[in-house]
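Translate sequence into structure tokens.
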Amino acid sequence: HKVMLNGHPTVIRESIKWVDLVEQMRRHWNYCDSGYPQLIALYAKLVRQKIILHRKWPVFPSNLDVHEKQWKLPENDINLYFQLAVDCFEYLETMLKLVKCIRDNLSGSAQFSPAMVQCRQNPYSALIPLL
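Result follows.
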């Protein structure tokens, strides 16, 4: 995900072959209702959606840094723009679910000692800037 955010030009082409593995990982961790397994499943879903979004819309770079010139799709069909909006909103919805899950997971931290809270927060420190 970090490499995709950096916008390397070949990252999408190279990551497409791993979509099935990411989906298997998501399904594996999806059976738990709360805690870290749910976070892993949501993050895997987010990465999978990002890869599929860029495979479907190769006009956009992997870091979604779109300039005005790139907004023109090959065909000027309103249905293409609508489908692009739906795909982007699905990606954003998954991102918001992941953020909510992180917030919910940390909300129970008030009952723990400061050292335990810090241990619970450490995995998120690397993830949050990526969202």
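Note: Residues 84 and 118 are 39 Å apart (CA to CA).
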